[in-house]
Amino acid sequence: MMARSIKGAKALPLSGKVGLALVLFWLVAALVGPMLAPYPVGAFVAYDVFDGSSSAHWLGSDYLGRDVLSRLLWGARYTVALAAAAAFLASATGTALALTAAVGGAKVDEPLSRFMDMLISIPSKIFSLVLVAAFGSSLPLLLLIAAITYVPGNYRIARALAVNLTQMDYVQVARARGEGRLHIAIAEILPNMIHPLLADFGLRFVFIVLLLSGLSFLGLGVQPPDADLGSLVRENISGLGEGALAILAPAIAIATLTVGVNLLIDAIGVSGTGRGKRK
Amino acid sequence: MAGASTSSGAKAAFVLIGKRLASSLLTLLLVSVTIFVIAQLLPGDAAQEALGQSATVEQVAALRHEMGLDRPAPVRYISWLGGMVSGDPGQSLVANMPVSEVISSRLPNSLLLAALTALVAVPVALAIGIGSAMNRGGRIDRALNITTLSMVAVPEFLVATIAVLIFSVKLRWLPSIALVSDEMSWGDYLRGAAMPILCLSIVVIAQMARMTRAAVIDQMDRPYVEMAVLKGVAPVQVVLKHIMPNAIAPIVNAMALSLSYLLGGAVIVETIFNYPGLASLMVNAVTSRDMPLLQACAMIFCAAYLILMLIADVTAILANPRLRAQ
Questions:
Q1: Shortest CB distance from A126 goes to which of B168, B257, B263?
Q2: What is the pTM of this model?
Q3: Contact state of B207 with A214 under an 8 Å Cβ cutoff
């Protein structure tokens, strides 16, 4: 398994290798970054605000004189963990509903698909804004809101895959054998759509990172004292005029994370569905 | 051949378009139910919100009755929907004036921003997409592929930040805040709105160019293109005369989808530049939990999305001779 992954990584084109490196970097940063942070996350450690890079503060200081690198490492954990959990929840829900629709016949499929089509026609940022206004933006709610927003997109793709697979001979055979719907969905159909679903998971992850950091940037996402990468951009916006590192560093951090995932998915090229699209 | 089949073809297309229009309207109706229901889930209601914590139960009940909030939800939905259709979506709780007035002062700005962005983005994206497709697999194509692939994943505020650093801080060409008002001359407006247009264009172009390339390449693999190439038609002519007529529907679809992205992207870009448009108004409505205003804004964005999709589908119907001839 390990050897196969390494071989697979070596076979990637250069852009894919760059993508893989960026993704791994941010995963490691989210996992162990906070332990490596040179200063406590909320401590005022620099004399000057919006300091440039120095040996004491690699990424300078923020609008209150806190260490940007330390805050960035913590922020990355919030961003990566929230987005990964929300993307997983969205994919699991969307796929479960899609499988239900695929094996449930027209009576289940029709209303469910109509409903999802309707949800898809609400632009995702607008939908999440309405949800935030109604529910608020604590961390668990943000996770849920991001997941709900991206369920319809996953459902549409998973349903298309699953409906194609139900026409396959081996599914027909399983049906003739008298297997139950649950068995057909989980043992016959699901394993054969895992690859495109993984690519879709990567895309959902990118969308959700952008959505959540966008919300935080607007002040509607992660609330202080917690801060994800989007919040860091927001709180340092007053440093824009002087081109402070404190605002550029978190913005570039988000970009390298999302671009990395995109490059990796494109290089693996498992699925062409919806690639590079976003709403 | 021509006379009879053209008129029956036109009729068939007409019926198709009618069906498509009806389904859009139905979707919009369902969207309105969804948005209304979500807005109702808000803990407490507008009367409570307006009077604050210190209000007595009787005061809240009185205001609730005055605002019609004590009626059952379906009745409130019908009256809200009726208000939306007749152009009176209620009273903004924070601005304390009709929602229609608040929106009508912002909507033209947003439409202008979207129109100018489309004007910049569409030609550039077409050029990049078609150029990329003609150079398929070549160096330019690969470079453009990586660039656009990266651009679609870059957050708008990074684009905006870098644009401000380059054009406002270093070069001092453009203001970093879009001061836009009704009395401005066109030149002043363009100067003020240049940065938002630039940022929105960059994000939209990447997406549009990718989808255009995919649409053109999809046609390139067809036998009729191979035939044209084999009989010696020049590459530019192949694209313009043979591929474009067939790729027009997917390309319009790509344009519509990407422009619908403008609706979301504008949320960030309008806010960062303080551009007085509908998206920044909606963000304010969320912050102040001004539900009537928020619902109306959300409905306008959803309607705009559905109109774009409708345009894409109608173009596809009109551009497909097989559909027309049916």
A1: B263
A2: 0.86
A3: no
